[in-house]
Amino acid sequence: MVKLTRRKFGKLVGAGVAAGAVGVPTLAQAAIPKVVVIGGGAGGATAARYIAKDSKGAIEVTLIEPTKKYYTCFFSNLYLGGVRSYESIGHTYEKLAYDFGINVIHEWATGVDRDKKEVVLSSGARVPYDRLIISPGIDFKYDSVPGYSPESTNAMPHAWKSGSQVQLLKAQVENMKEGGTFLMVPPPNPYRCPPGPYERISMVAKILKERNPTASIMILDTKEKFSKQGLFQEGWDNHYKGMIEWLPPSVHGGIKNIDHRAMSVETDFDTFTADAACVIPAQKAGQIAALANLTNEAGWCPINPKTMQSTMDENIHVIGDASVATSMPKSGFSANSQAKVAAMAVRAALIGSKMFGSKYANTCWSLIAEDDGIKVGATYEGGAEKIDVVDKFISKTGEDAATRKSTYEESLGWYDAISADMFG
Amino acid sequence: MLFRFFSVTVIFLTFFTFAFLPARAESIIDFSSADIEYGQYLASECTSCHLLSGKESKIPNIVGLEAETFVVVLRAYRDKHLSHEAMQNIASRLGDEEMISLAIYFESLRDEEKANKEETY
Fold first, then answer.
1. Do residues A353 and A54 lie in contact, with contact meaning Cβ atoms separated by under 8 Å?
2. If DSSP codes are grouped into helix, strand and coil, which group holds residue A156?
3. Residues B27-77: tens digit of each pLDDT
């Protein structure tokens, strides 16, 4: 199979006019439409790859991603729990560059000039676009948790963007004093990965059961209920009986102050001290979306449900966590799904390729204990007002061990497939 | 165990179908309106979970599958003869045109898969 890179396409075009006028740019080269993608995660990497792959060189694709090795947030909990190695969740961009001819730039995008249709890079360079896809993930509203700030993130990591924060948190949990307390403050809705904090609790409990069985876990939640709650609580009862306590705001009265030096969390009900802690603040779209003036008052980007175009700029698509993609949850699976619809819409707009109906899907797998996996998911369609649920499914309480093991193993297959779908 | 059950079921279904199915040219499944470009677009939904490389995975390989088999299995999910809620949901929103287009697209990858394997020696 010939891998059509941009270089090869350029050569093909050049050969076609070798007999013609020298020094005159070919019509094809001058007219090649340009797509820039900001963010090389589940949304951006997928979008860049699909546009490059399916346009077969007819669109020039640039991907701007500051990190050279991308550690997925999804499955980072499995690393935390000792089920995966750290390196197994890391991915690099050389296949996107070589096999798909994508111009991968490892810089930050610091601004978007929407009038000139240019992305400004941290080096000061400017990259022009005909269509822009922004997939910047999330940033934190630090002050949503009183007393918490970027300076708190070593003592009380959020570890909600994967990378070294997860390694730090794992080391902190593994080195807790005997009989110590692990404390978590999960975020309020909407946030990246609804079941994620509770899968994290499960993985922390798994480590503590193995290494520090008299330790305990306290969850001071910022909401009254959470994703797959019945399933998690059944699983915690089965595997970690008596270890985990979950308090909603109606019981603790709300988080009043966090002191990361004292490792304490003050609520109306009591002040809790921790030996290790994870505080996940409220979230908003990655900052570049706000700098580009694409966000609403809540800090997220409203979109057209059929094309993922920003409602504020038809030349820009926003995908993944940063978008208001209700009814879809903010997840890697959703970002990958939305990227394909955006890629289709961009190709249709730029080179007239076919536009089919906008179909989406999501499945979120969570691991409660070794070989005890659960899932929730749905299929969706781009409706008139929002992305509508078509069908949904969820694991059931009381499922047998074989079903739960199969659910977990399925997630392993998914991870391999989505990684290849994103990075080649 | 569920995976083994699924494999056995697929093999059984395939055998049962082909025991009574005429040859491809006179197949009861009409592939005449299949659109491979449409199949390629629809396949983007499949590749979130099904590896295109055909490498071993806990999720069944569908690359290079015989087109009739592909349609038979999808119909079985749609009609809930095969259990797996996500696949039932996905299959239930695929009409005949979608299923046959997907089928011929994934079948067409069989030669590509072989070519890929030959290149990397």
1. yes
2. coil
3. 578 999 999 988 998 999 999 999 988 787 889 999 988 999 999 999 999
B22/chain A closest Cα distance in angstroms? 33
Q: Which domains does chain A have, with CATH numbers?
A: 6-12+28-137+286-357 (3.50.50.60), 143-281 (3.50.50.60)
Q: Which whole-number Å values give the CA distances from A165 to A6, A208, A264, in the listed order?
A: 37, 19, 20
Shortest distance between the Cα of B50 and any Cα of chain A, in A, equals 6
What CA–CA distance (Å, rounded) separates A119 from A127? 5
Chain A hits for B59, Cβ within 8 Å? 410, 413-414, 417
What residues does each domain of chain B span?
31-119
Query: Chain A interface, mutation test: which of B3, B44, B97, most A Cβ atoms within 10 Å?
Result: B44
End-to-end CA distance of chain B: 34
Architecture of the CATH domain B31-119: Orthogonal Bundle (1.10)
The answer to whether residue B86 neighbours chain A at the CB level (below 8 Å) is yes
- The DSSP code sequence of B45-71 is HHTTTS-TT----SSPP-TT--HHHHH
**Nearest chain B CA: its distance from A389 CA (Å):** 11
pTM for the model stands at 0.89
B11 contacts: CB under 8 Å, gap ≥ 6: none
* A212-265 tens-digit pLDDT: 999 999 999 999 999 999 999 999 999 999 999 999 999 999 999 999 999 999
Q: Are B41 and A379 in contact (CB < 8 Å)?
A: no
Q: CA A419 → CA A196, A353, A424, distances in Å?
A: 19, 26, 7
The vertex-A404 CA angle with A403 and A409, nearest 5°, equals 95
Distance CA A353, CA A137 (A): 28
Interchain CB distance below 8 Å, A403 and B2? yes
Looking at residue A83, the DSSP 8-state letter turns out to be S
Tell me how many degrees the CA angle A366-A222-A78 measures, rounded to the nearest 5.
Answer: 20
